[in-house]
Amino acid sequence: MDVPELSLTVLAFLTSLSLAVVSPVLPLYVESFGVSYEALGLFFSAYSLTWSLLQLYTGYLSDRYGRRRLALIGLAVYSLSALGCAQARDFTQLFLFRIVQGVGLGLFGPALLGLVAGLRRQERAFALYRTAQGAGGVIGPIVGGYLGHIGLSMPFLLSAAAGGLAIAATCLIREETSGREPGEHTGFLTALRTALSRPGFLFLCGGAFLAEMGYVARGIVVPLAGQKAGLTTEQIGLAMSAYPLAFVLSQVPIGVLIERTRRKLVLAGCALAAALGFLSLFVATSAWGMALAMGVLGLTLGTIFVQSAAWIAKLAPPERKSLYLASFDALIDLSFPATPVLVGLLAGLGVRVPFLFCALLLLTSACVLSRVPEG
């Protein structure tokens, strides 16, 4: 492993840790300011809407002005605003600092992927990057849960520290490619119009979008349901870590399996199994029960996301694969700003009611994915 690969691997772990460490306590931290579930939903939606809209443009900005430069700016913004979240005195301050964090994520996320794509051995680089991200996603909730037992603002301090270390790792990376080909933006718009005219693309986007709504909802509702069931923040963190652990362990074997069977059956079957996972969360009251259900979701939802993207790549013309994948990501990521508002409204009826809604979403996703043309 050379220096750029090692730096990006460390960077992927640190950024994933910075994002994941606050996940077990964030809904509880927001709730501690005495706001309603509806306000909690708006809080999550505002953050998600900020970075999901920015990512449509920051890829262009990083190509034009430098990927490492945009990554450094984004990481600095994210880390400083994490400190602001830790020191927030009221919900308004927390809300504003969290939106600024969304700006930081919208800047550094696409820029870091551009740095990975600029390495010579791209396949190896992406494999290392995703694996390190998964490791950060496993460790982050566990550490965040234990820190939350000390104080709900403590995970934000570690998030800021991890972001600072990520800045140092970014400084070690030498950007190997730069510049933007003329007309690339027009090519993106043309590819998007072409993609939207293809039934396979639309069905895959629709099925993955519904699945991602379930993914977003479980990150909000599991801590709240766990708290209502009397679980500690440590237990909630352990339960949430089952999702990324199952994801990391399952995706390589599933990738081999799906080459030997019909992709449509695997994707639709995973959506049905994910619906059962959400029903299990609805009735689970123990940490182990929630962890088992989260493991099922890590395997099934993870497969839908990864293999839908792989299928999109197969549908795309050779010269437009990256544009098709960017369009796919942008469309399904609309679930991040849309879902929390719905979750907040449903949680007002009962903190576990969103799990039933998620099961319905995944049943619908199974129907949509079953209609993807195999050709």
Short summary of the structure?
This protein is mainly α and 375 residues long. 82% of the residues lie in helices and 0% in strands.
Describe this structure in words.
- By secondary structure, the protein is an all-alpha fold.
- It has 2 domains: 3-171, MFS general substrate transporter like domains (Growth Hormone, Chain: A, Up-down Bundle), CATH 1.20.1250.20; 184-369, MFS general substrate transporter like domains (Growth Hormone, Chain: A), CATH 1.20.1250.20.
- It contains 15 helices and no strands.
- The chain is globular.
- The chain starts with a helix and ends in a 6-residue tail after the last helix.
Secondary-structure map:
Layout lengths: L2 H18 L5 H6 L5 H29 L1 H20 L4 H27 L4 H29 L3 H18 L12 H13 L2 H30 L4 H26 L4 H21 L3 H29 L5 H12 L2 H13 L5 H17 L6
Helix pairs in contact: 1-6, 1-7, 3-4, 3-5, 3-14, 4-5, 4-7, 6-10, 9-10, 9-12, 9-14, 9-15, 10-12, 11-12, 11-15, 12-13
